[in-house]
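Take a look at my tokenised protein here and describe the backbone shape.
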Amino acid sequence: MHLGYGEQLAEKSARFAATLARSAPLAHVASPTVAEASPQLGYRTRIKWMAGGDGALGMYARDGDHVVVDTPACLVASPILRAVAVALRALLRGPSTPATRALAAVDLREAVDRMAVARVLVTLVVTHDDADVDLSARQLARELAATQPVVVGVALNVTATNPQILGPVTRLLFGEASAVDRLGDIEVLASFGSFVQAHRGQATAIVGALKARILVREAPRVLELFAGSGAFGLALARAGAKVTMVESFVPAAELARASARREGLDVTVHAEDAERYAKSAEARGEQFDAVLVDPPRRGLTPALREAIAGLLPSCLAYVSCMPETLTRDLAHFAALGLATVTIGAFDMIPQTEQIESVAWLEPAPAPKTSWLAVEADFAALDKPAHIEALAPWLASLSLELGWESATPLVSVPRDVSGVCVLARGSTHGHRPRVMLELACVAHGITHETGTIRRPARSCRNAHSEFVRVGVASGHSRLLVRSGTTAIDAVLEQLAGIRHPALGDPRRSRPASRRHFFERHGLDRTLVHVTAATLPSGRRVEARIPGDMHAVLASLGFDDTRTGTKTSDKTSDKTSDVA
């Protein structure tokens, strides 16, 4: 908000351009100019605020330890939500009750119908639920509605034990369980905790963009994943599409179904996890003309991306609020045969750093292999993450090289990116030596330098050296040099000294991996093979890919270091690590 609005748009457009530029598979895609919003203040239709002491409602301080910064006059909230927040804040500053002591957050949702009548739904998010909390929360709800008649419903939610604020169960305390909300030419039923785009005008613009691209044929079959309460899908159905909606939040799915009945639309709604549904639809051989996804900021999981590609849609519309996770996913889709054609960007949340965008993907051949070196008997390529070095892929690479067959000299796991070295033919009885350099982030704070002599199950004679080149968010960025060509052995060694690589699916805790996916968009092991010295003595390098750049920046590491060079003093300063 310290910038003029034109400067805000320019900075957002520049950020999008820089994010795209770091992703090689998207080099052909023109960077979008962020479309301006109107109004730029007082627009936000939903607010989630944390609750602090003395009735404070706001966001956590950037560098604080869960310190809530009170925002009594938040300029982006709609005037009605601001008025409700002021009244709620006054009640929270009254006598302490079990509900106010247990309060963790509040969720305020504005709904405006076709007659321009505004209503507000309030969700009280508490740390625990018992009879005392329930009784005092009901009293708080009645007092709030008495001072603010615009509040038509209040619900209680027990917070989730993960980075998300809202838990899975919501219970009505007072009033109505839903309210009618208008988006363009349709009305949907808003509920407690259901997703909604923050800016009505920009959401309407996105609906227009979706109609223009998807409704190019009569009655297209559309699969919408992460459908929420159905705003996009219902608009497409009203325009003639045959829509199947999938939403994991059961109350939102039920409201989408009720909204379809209310609008007289023939829409199929499934209350199911998006990944599970897409996989089952692929297994059943279902086909759709278009797939529409609007995931949270963390983006799509690798398995969901593969399932969507397996559905063979003629068009994929990807609505995103995070350029970094969007470009990560678009790069993987390119390898899966869905290429990005164009991207549009919208200033959905003015006065913040957020950017909303819609990417359009269509079937296309996979990008060409990025060869780093090709010699008579050896070759090196830059392997993207999420590609398995199995027989079909190796056969394709052999064909490109004009070899009868190829054997990997460097065993790069599926979820690790970087230099992959191939040998011509078989290497039985003789395996040429290859030296590797890796960039990774390990859990916790390591020594500044070290030699890991602990053998790995997959490679008994392996040892590796590392240099710590940075510390951020309580974790260590490392440059690792190893004589083993089994990357999994290096990962095992790091775990053996109690510093596993972030995102390692075999050696880091599931809760930790989920945290880094939700918070930082990390959907794989945070390891990249930056360089390799071939048997011929030739050294090849692979630059840090865009998805890893984004995670490093999110964690707070200096993004200017490439991670391709290890200190010359490594061998002099290393110390044995037991």
Q: What stands out?
A: The chain has three domains: 5-39+198-363, 46-183, 374-577. The CA atoms of residues 211 and 526 lie 38 Å apart. The radius of gyration is 26 Å. Confidence is low (pLDDT under 50) at residues 560-578.
